[in-house]
Amino acid sequence: MEAPRLYSTKPVQSLKPTKKIPLEEDTGKASDALPLPLYLTNALFFTLFFSVVYFLLSRWREKIRTSTPLHVVTFSDIIAILSFLASFIYLLGFFGIDFVQSSVFQSSPDVWISEEEDDEVLLAKEDARKVPCGQALDCSLPPLPPVAPIVTAQKVFDEKPVTVLTEEDEEIIKSVVAGTTPSYSLESKLGDCKRAAAIRREALQRLTGKSLSGLPLDGFDYESILGQCCEMPVGYVQIPVGISGPLLVNGREYSVPMATTEGCLVASTNRGCKAIHLSGGATSVLLKDGMTRAPCVRFGTAKRAADLKLYLEDPDNFETLSVVFNRSSRFGRLQGIKCAIAGKNLYIRFTCSTGDAMGMNMVSKGVQNVLDFLQTDFPDMDVIGISGNYCSDKKPAAVNWIEGRGKSVVCEATIKGDVVRKVLKTSVESLVELNMLKNLTGSAMAGALGGFNAHASNIVAAIYIATGQDPAQNVESSHCITMMEAVNDGKDLHVSVTMPSIEVGTVGGGTQLASQSACLNLLGVKGASKETPGANSRTLATIVASAVLAGELSLMSAIAAGQLVKSHMKYNRSTKDVSKASS
């Protein structure tokens, strides 16, 4: 039976039956069928319910402490679970029947609206909603105050939109599982990227027997990644984005987005930003801007390889090669060629500007043009590969550390002594000594290649993920040497980072995705620069270096002050019980 609705209105007529029921037809209340009085039955099940709940919670807590899997149950656990279900069903279905009948239905007749007036009240309520209160003639029926529901994380998760598979989808899923339809061809066959992802996801779950319920599917534009970012998608991973700043660089303030799952990282970088800001800001200078690609070619003799090396490095031939190379793009411009010989093999390292793009594809097309051109004068040249690892891309390499790749940047700041003591909680002398023994001497002892820093890769990776860069290029982009020295008679601290191979872009690849594009927009470097080609990507590189400076400053201070372990125990230790996570 539907419960009557409660309104705060003027008194209305009391609840009356619309039809008289003969006394002999009254079959009594539902509670009359119980073997015990209703209050005793309710009390029994009420006690049973909470006793069983307490027992199960105690058992689960004991299992967690002893690392016992929760699905391993004893006979007493099974009895407790069954008792819980039985008592819960009873309480849900029967508890309070007498209370409802005696208390609710016998309340003041001035409070309840009879069934005969339902239609009239609902109509009046609809009319009141259609006209604003200020214009309506009668505002005596205000809307009920909203009651805030209790929302749990599980409820929010359950209420997310779920893609419903049709019978046709079911047939396609079976075809994918059977191997009749290739999974990679779903987008082209269906013409719907979202639907293709949903079908592929379901087929994968059936093939592996593993659930992907924790991996979101809805809420993502799968059309945006087709043919450029990711193949055969089944969902997307959520990474939180934090903000460090304001970071004052070259007179401008930036709020730096950092996508990371490492606690303390954003907070630490933010403290470094504060120290830099209070000291007047940082200065960041771009030293070089050029992406590289180095194909490997082979000849019959080492002399022929040397002939090509001399030809390519001859300044008189550079203009001709530049014209051939530059045909590939209106932004790609050849800057230089450097060669290295290994026997009969020649490695040719081309360097070119790439505008606001990171530029790997751009430089590769230009290199291919030059190789085709060289075949005329060197028909015995055998192209082994468009990339011979002398570039060098996504690998630690001395050539990048020495020659640079992408954007080469140096960033510096002078931190006041008061800021070092009050904000960074350490001293200038301690930081200078720690930097020498850790970042310089310690890294040399380890045989580091471009790793003369505390944690440059932490900041680079977080910014790269947030802004749609290639995370794998964090390898060479994190090449960094951190220098610290006391200045102004030892009162202040001069700190700098030199990073020779920051590889970033503001167009192409992941920068076009909505989330990453928003982060670039936050920095004011979204898309291509309309005034000066390449200005946005160069600005982004200086921001990356400046954020690394802030991160280095803060982490080194934490280590010098003995705060590293304490801070990580506070901000990087989860208290959430993950033993219940589904496998």
From TrEMBL:
Record-linked CDD domains: HMG-CoA_reductase_classI
One Pfam family cited in the UniProt record for this chain: HMG-CoA_red
A Gene Ontology molecular function term of the record: hydroxymethylglutaryl-CoA reductase (NADPH) activity
Localisation per UniProt entry: Endoplasmic reticulum membrane
Span of the signal peptide: none
Chief location: endoplasmic reticulum
Oxidoreductase listed as a keyword: yes
Cited InterPro entries: HMG_CoA_Rdtase (IPR002202), HMG_CoA_Rdtase_cat_sf (IPR023074), HMG_CoA_Rdtase_CS (IPR023076), HMG_CoA_Rdtase_eu_arc (IPR004554), HMG_CoA_Rdtase_N (IPR023282), HMG_CoA_Rdtase_NAD(P)-bd_sf (IPR009023), HMG_CoA_Rdtase_sub-bd_dom_sf (IPR009029)
Keyword Hydrolase: no
GO cellular component: endoplasmic reticulum membrane; peroxisomal membrane
Bilayer-crossing regions: 36-57, 78-97
Enzyme nomenclature, EC number: 1.1.1.34
Catalysed reaction equations from the record: (R)-mevalonate + 2 NADP(+) + CoA = (3S)-3-hydroxy-3-methylglutaryl-CoA + 2 NADPH + 2 H(+)
Pathway: Metabolic intermediate biosynthesis; (R)-mevalonate biosynthesis; (R)-mevalonate from acetyl-CoA: step 3/3
SUPFAM superfamilies per the UniProt record, alphabetical: NAD-binding domain of HMG-CoA reductase, Substrate-binding domain of HMG-CoA reductase
Family: Belongs to the HMG-CoA reductase family.
Name of the molecule in the record: 3-hydroxy-3-methylglutaryl coenzyme A reductase
Protein source organism: Gossypium tomentosum
Lineage: Eukaryota, Viridiplantae, Streptophyta, Embryophyta, Tracheophyta
